[in-house]
């Protein structure tokens, strides 16, 4: 996961120059080809020569899953990933990292390898393109969902978040990048569901928990940390309550109420596990 990009010194000037070029808001397939010709061709000439000297270097196509049995559509998919790996621009034209686009070479160098999957996570019967950007900083970590518009011949962004877990019925559980203090395996998250009418993920609620905390050394309850704990809401006296918030209200639930509520959306037996394909930094782009 932490392999350094082969040929980084040789290609850094070219890539930084390429990344500084204007990129359209949306990369249509025809435009994507133009972007690739204007950027990746120059980059690849130096990157690929160095990468090919590595024993584990293969063409990027060999690391990718098949997006479609339609050769034209699958070529659009391969082209989109080549643009991403060469310039940092996602299939819809957005930059993949939080920082300056001119710093792509540096950000790519300190980041982990990106991951690609093809999977129906919306429940509409069509496979989506999933991309995990494993940045070197928390702000640069993200997961993206794209659908392919056959009429427009381009990928369109459906959703992006820090982290996404998938469940049947178009459910997306998005864990927070930062949380509070918990003594079990709970972590706060947002919950979404795919709406076929709007072709987008609709927000359901945000979930957090307040728990009684113990002193790590003595094992006794820490009075200072627990001074704001809502004891009256903890009906079963297990030391934890849950807050379910949406755009209109915040509902406090005890454990039994929460378990009844969450099972309407999340069933571990219906978890979707995409087959992620890692794209090594040594992958050859031609």
List keywords for this structure.
286 residues, alpha+beta, 12 strands
Please tell me about this protein's structure:
This protein has 286 residues and is α+β, with helices and mostly antiparallel strands. The protein is 23% helix and 25% strand. The chain is built from five helices and twelve strands. It has helices at 8-19, 29-51, 71-87, 104-110, 255-262, and strands at 114-119, 128-134, 141-149, 154-161, 165-167, 171-175, 189-195, 200-211, 240-245, 250-253, 271-272, 277-279. The chain has a seven-stranded antiparallel beta sheet with strand order 10-9-8-7-6-5-11. The chain has a five-stranded antiparallel beta sheet with strand order 4-3-2-1-12, covered by helices on one side. Residues 1-55 have low confidence and may be disordered.
Beta-sheet strand percentage? 25-35%
Please tally the helical runs, counting DSSP H or I stretches of 4 or more residues.
Answer: 5
The parts where pLDDT drops under 50 for at least 5 residues are 1-55
Relative helix content: 10-25%
The largest beta-sheet arranges its strands as 10-9-8-7-6-5-11
Rg over C-alpha atoms, rounded to the nearest angstrom: 22 Å
**N→C terminal distance:** 22 Å
Query: Quick one: how many beta strands?
Result: 12
Oligomer: single chain
The assigned structural class equals alpha+beta
Mean pLDDT: 82
What is the H/E string? HHHHEEEEEEEEEEHEE
The main β sheet shows up as: 7 strands, antiparallel
Label the overall shape: globular
């Amino acid at each position: 996961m932490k392999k350094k990009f082969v040929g980084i010194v040789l290609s850094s000037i070219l890539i930084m120059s390429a990344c500084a070029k204007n990129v359209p808001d949306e990369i249509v397939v025809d435009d994507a080809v133009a972007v690739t010709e204007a950027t990746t061709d120059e980059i690849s000439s130096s990157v690929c020569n160095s990468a090919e000297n590595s024993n584990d270097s293969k063409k990027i196509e060999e690391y990718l899953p098949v997006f479609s049995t339609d050769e034209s559509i699958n070529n659009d998919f391969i082209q989109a990933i080549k643009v991403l790996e060469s310039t940092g621009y996602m299939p819809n034209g957005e930059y993949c990292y939080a920082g300056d686009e001119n710093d792509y070479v540096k950000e790519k160098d300190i980041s982990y390898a990106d991951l690609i999957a093809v999977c129906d996570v919306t429940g509409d019967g069509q496979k989506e393109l999933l991309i995990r950007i494993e940045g070197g900083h928390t702000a640069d970590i993200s997961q993206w969902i794209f659908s392919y518009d056959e009429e427009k011949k381009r990928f369109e962004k459906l959703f992006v978040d820090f982290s996404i877990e998938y469940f049947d019925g178009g459910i997306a559980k998005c864990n927070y990048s930062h949380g509070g203090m918990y003594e079990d395996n709970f972590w706060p998250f947002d919950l979404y569901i795919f709406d076929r009418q709007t072709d987008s993920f609709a927000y359901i609620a945000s979930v957090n928990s307040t728990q009684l905390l113990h002193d790590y050394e003595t094992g006794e309850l820490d009075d200072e940390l627990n001074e704001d704990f809502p004891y009256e809401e903890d009906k079963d006296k297990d030391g934890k309550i849950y807050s379910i918030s949406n755009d209109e209200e915040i509902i406090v639930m005890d454990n039994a109420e929460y378990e009844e509520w969450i099972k309407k959306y999340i069933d571990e037996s219906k978890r979707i596990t995409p087959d992620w394909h890692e794209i090594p930094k040594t992958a050859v782009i031609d």
